[in-house]
Amino acid sequence: MARIELNRLAHAYMPNPQSRADFALKEFDLTWDDGGAYALLGPSGCGKTTLLNIISGLLAPSHGRVLFDGHEVTGLPPEARNIAQVFQFPVIYDSMTVYDNLAFPLRNRKVPAAEIDRRVHEMAEMLEMTRELKRKAKGLTADAKQKISLGRGLVRDSVNAILFDEPLTVIDPHLKWQLRSQLKHLHKRFAHTMIYVTHDQTEALTFADKVVVMYEGEVVQVGTPDELFHRPAHTFVGYFIGSPGMNVLPCAVNGASARVGEHEIALRGGYEPPPAGSKIELGVRPEFVRLGREDGVPVSVERVDDIGRYRIVKAKLDGIPFSALMPEGAEIPADDARVRFDASAVNLYVDDHLWP
Ligand SMILES: Nc1ncnc2c1ncn2[C@@H]1O[C@H](COP(=O)(O)OP(=O)(O)OP(=O)(O)O)[C@@H](O)[C@H]1O
């Protein structure tokens, strides 16, 4: 296992990048701790695969350095990096048995036969595939084949890191949960450095101890699921994580309060005035928005969706839309509704970045 450092890393696919927009990855520094379980989360096209390929050595970055445990590997090919990779679609040999598929990465590295046997059986047991070990991979379901791919990625104990690129895409929804918890269990057991690429927040938050969020080629936050929820570092993180995502309302700030439309909203403390001309917004998650009749700022309720234990209320404050999550049984006034934001859960954003 290794600590992976990315040092002033950036990548442009075009030969002479002129502006920031020409970079698929904009410059950043990032360290992945040895033995950490990370998710790399972001929407399609934000640069996740580019970053993963730079770590595995499939792609040489146009700028910056990659270090494993302090040793530079930037120019090294994948086979010299000792990394295991699991892709979206199964990469297995149909004509081989499940056993031989799992044994393949170990035989390749001349691991002694007894050790191979032990590891293959251990892996098969964890993947609940012991009964299939003697079967040919051909004819197995897509789910089973992808389990074998996962097993092949995980079977070596001496890898620097294991990279997963949306590995559960082909897996049946009801099995996804099971495989994700198996992966988490395997991480606890072997403490590999794992990087799990996904655009699905549930997958990221259930698998990872730390989530790296990317947006338009930038790493916008590295944090625990709790940090991403309570202190999104960028409006995109607030919006992308959570269901519904964080409310973002344009405002002006004046010390310990913000003006939204014609109304004053209390903030958690006093803020330095943001630079003139910047875009200022208030961010508050729907979980911390309360509607009632008694006090707060007048709003119009537009729509209520019942989702079981909660109701999602869509409302407007001076024409600015926002959502509230109201618990079962709480009154939602149709007329004369007022809103209160929990001041301790209100964050301030300047040009999309969290204002400290
Ligand atoms: N070989 C390439 N040549 C030129 N541009 C590329 C190449 N591969 C990716 N890109 C561009 O780089 C950007 C990042 O793409 P990348 O595939 O890394 O994103 P992603 O987050 O993995 O997306 P997805 O989830 O859809 O796979 C995109 O704008 C994409 O069009």
TrEMBL record:
<keyword id="KW-0472">Membrane</keyword>
<protein>
    <submittedName>
        <fullName>Glycerol-3-phosphate ABC transporter, ATP-binding protein UgpC</fullName>
    </submittedName>
</protein>
<dbReference type="InterPro" id="IPR003593">
    <property type="entry name" value="AAA+_ATPase"/>
</dbReference>
<dbReference type="InterPro" id="IPR012340">
    <property type="entry name" value="NA-bd_OB-fold"/>
</dbReference>
<comment type="similarity">
    <text>Belongs to the ABC transporter superfamily.</text>
</comment>
<dbReference type="GO" id="GO:0055052">
    <property type="term" value="C:ATP-binding cassette (ABC) transporter complex, substrate-binding subunit-containing"/>
</dbReference>
<keyword id="KW-0067">ATP-binding</keyword>
<dbReference type="Pfam" id="PF17912">
    <property type="entry name" value="OB_MalK"/>
</dbReference>
<dbReference type="InterPro" id="IPR040582">
    <property type="entry name" value="OB_MalK-like"/>
</dbReference>
<dbReference type="GO" id="GO:0016887">
    <property type="term" value="F:ATP hydrolysis activity"/>
</dbReference>
<keyword id="KW-0813">Transport</keyword>
<dbReference type="Pfam" id="PF00005">
    <property type="entry name" value="ABC_tran"/>
</dbReference>
<dbReference type="InterPro" id="IPR008995">
    <property type="entry name" value="Mo/tungstate-bd_C_term_dom"/>
</dbReference>
<dbReference type="GO" id="GO:0005524">
    <property type="term" value="F:ATP binding"/>
</dbReference>
<dbReference type="InterPro" id="IPR047641">
    <property type="entry name" value="ABC_transpr_MalK/UgpC-like"/>
</dbReference>
<dbReference type="InterPro" id="IPR015853">
    <property type="entry name" value="ABC_transpr_FbpC"/>
</dbReference>
<dbReference type="InterPro" id="IPR003439">
    <property type="entry name" value="ABC_transporter-like_ATP-bd"/>
</dbReference>
<keyword id="KW-0547">Nucleotide-binding</keyword>
<keyword id="KW-1003">Cell membrane</keyword>
<dbReference type="GO" id="GO:0015408">
    <property type="term" value="F:ABC-type ferric iron transporter activity"/>
</dbReference>
<feature type="domain" description="ABC transporter">
    <location>
        <begin position="4"/>
        <end position="241"/>
    </location>
</feature>
<dbReference type="InterPro" id="IPR027417">
    <property type="entry name" value="P-loop_NTPase"/>
</dbReference>
